[in-house]
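Minutes, project check-in
Item: structure for the 338-residue chain
Input as provided by the requester:
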Amino acid sequence: MKSINKGGMDEHTTKAYQAPSLGEGWGGCEDAGGGCQDSDGGCQDSSVGCEDVCQTGVCQCNRAFHAETLHPLVSLIDMSSPCERGKMKTDCYAVVFRHDAGDGARYGRRPYDFTDGTLLFVTPDKEIDLATADGKMLIFHPSLTECTPLGLRLKEYSFFKYRQDESLHISCCEIKVINRCLGCIQDELCWGVDDYSKDIISNAIDLLLGYCRRFYNRQFITRHEANAAAIATLDGAIDGYLKSGRAATDGLPTASRLAQRLDMSAEYMNDMLKSETGKTAAEYLQLRRLLMAKQLLIGTDTPVGRIAETLGFSTAGCFAAVFRRTTGCTPEEYRGNE
C-alpha cells in the first residue's frame, strides 16, 4: 500500500492506487477531483472521459478475459485465462507472445527457425485471435504513444505490418529478454497511474520493440539461403518486366506488386532486402534498372533515348543524369569505354 498525503496536510490514507472496476472510469484515489463518484460509474469531470476510456480496445480485451484494467490505455493479458471471444478487432496495437504456436506453417515457421516461442504483431483495426489458450498479449492504444519517443519511432517498427505467416520465431534466450521487458511493463502497471506512467510505460514498450527488431534481423540472417533464393526470383521478375517494355507504358512495378511475386508482404520484402543487400525495395529496383541499362548499352546498338524509354525514364536527359550520378560517366561515355 502507498501512503498518500492529501493536499500537503498531515491526514494520510492507506488506500492503494488501483484500477477501477469495469463499471467505473479512471479516477485514481477517491476525492482526487476527477474520479467517477456515482455508483453507476458516471463521470462528473468530462476531462476524464470515463465513457471513452471504457470503450477502448484495451478495456474490451480485459473484459473478454475478465482481467482488471490497471490502465485504460495499456494492458498485459494472460491469454491462458478463459476468454469469451474468439477474435476481436480493436483500435490498438498488440504484441502477442505464444509459447506453443501449434500450427507452425500458419505463422510461417520454417525448418531453420527457432521453435521456443513466436511473436505476432497487430496494428489497429486488425483482428486479434484471442482463442489461443497460451501466452501473453501486450495491447496499447495509440494515444499512449502521443508526444513520446515511441510515438515518433512507431512507424519504424515495420513488422507490425507483416503478415501472420511472417511472424517472429524466437529462442529460449530471446524469450528471457522478452519476458524481462514484459515484466517491467507489468510492474509499472501495478505501481499505479501518476505523472510519470506514460513516459515510463511507453519507453518500456519502445525497448521491447527494439529487441523485437534485433531478433527479426537475426531471423533474416538465419534465413539467408531462403532469402537469397527469393532475391534471385525477384531479379528475374524485375528484369523480365523491364525487358518487356512495360515500364514505358505502365511505369515501374510497385513494391506491393513485386512482393506478390514472392508471396510476401511489401514491408517484409523491403526489410529482407535491406538486411541482405543494404538497400530498400525502391533502391534495389533502381539498381536493377541501371544494371539493365549497362547491359543494353554494351550488348546492343539501341539508341540511348530508346533505352531510356524502355526502362521507364521520363526523358533521355533524366536517364543520363541518373546514370552519371551512379557510374560517374554518361551513357555514351560508358558505351564508348566498354
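Outcome recorded: The mean pLDDT is 84.
No further action items on this chain.
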